[in-house]
Design a protein that fits this description.
By secondary structure, the protein is of the alpha/beta class. The protein contains nine helices and 14 strands. The chain is globular, with a radius of gyration of 18 Å.
Amino acid sequence: MPDAEAPRLLCVEVYGSKPLSYMTETAAGLLERLARTALFVPTTTRTPEQYGRVRLPGPAPRFAICANGGRLLVDGVSDPDWQDRVADRLADECAPLAEVRAHLLAAADPAWLLKERIAEDLFAYLVVDRALLPQGWVKELSEWAEGRGWTVSLQGRKIYAVPRPLTKSAAMREVARRTGAGLTLAAGDSLLDADLLLAADRAWRPGHGELADTGWSAPHVDVLEETGVAAGEEILRRFGAAVARSGEARGLAGDGARDGAEDSSRDAA
């Protein structure tokens, strides 16, 4: 939009001593009100350490879902029971992380591989030069991973390899069970948000992101025209309206800020 029409922004994340992620000041006010009337649960593929860089307005969330559902933070501390349950399920249903990581590194070309990372000993991802990434490489990797209980997705400059049972929706259901939530609301823009949106009672998808790029939709998921921070603001309005219509509503949502850090997930507003 024209500079003169741009909204005032509030920085909600600093990385490397520089401001990184933002939301509009209006969205900040909406989120603060929402967090005082419903259970707001930040939900992200970020590790707990990466999530710790984010400073959202309002009271500190009682719960946060990190590492794509592999870590459930309760008052800022990873819940050991949930961590053990996730570990047991991955051991039973998936090939070991070491095997997948070794294959990723053997198949990747140093000409386009920029970084490789392991997140919480749960999943792996590569940071790549997308312009040099060979066509069909991700598809071949997906086919290899499928038989081993893993999924692969390309999001921006990152290629994620994630165990199939490691989902945000499983952690969302656990929070809903513990709190007795009668209604779950979710929003997200990335491929790794799809299971969360499908599991929620109502959900919203902004006009930007990997889900928008692929045309993804579902009957109970509203597709918004807004993009970027404007989409985050509109989603918070929709959350607030839904909470107002239901006294027992509980809200769960993907990451509130758009970020471009190489070691952070691009989760949705």
